[in-house]
Amino acid sequence: LGLSAMSYVPHLAMWTVCGYHLMTDEQTCNRILDMPQDHLITPAQCRAARALLAMAQEDLAKSARVASKTVVRFEKGETAKASTAQVLRFALERSGVRFLTDNGVSMRAA
Q1: pTM as predicted
Q2: Whole-number Å distance between alpha carbons of 105 and 8
Q3: In whole angstroms, how far apart are CA 6 and each of 1, 10, 22?
Q4: pLDDT tens figures, 33-67
Q5: How large is the C-alpha radius of gyration of the chain?
Q6: Which helix (H) or strand (E) holds 31?
């Protein structure tokens, strides 16, 4: 978005550009961008996490603020930017999933 677009869409003024994504919280954005590359999730982990949460792809897309097609392509194993995997992981973690070091997935303890 150019600066001129911001004047026409005032509600976007609260958003922060985070990689290729728009986030409402700069702290969240910094956490995503600072995530080490070895903490990226796999397509299988993404599908498993959604299954644990009984979450539809569309719901994950909305939570991660990406297009539904982005989630579909990621879960199929198509090439994705690291920032996409990071945003998906963070959205799933916010929903209560924990990613294990052995590439497993579990629900976070309450």
Answers
A1: 0.67
A2: 42
A3: 7, 6, 13
A4: 555 555 789 999 999 999 999 999 999 999 999 99
A5: 15
A6: helix 26-33
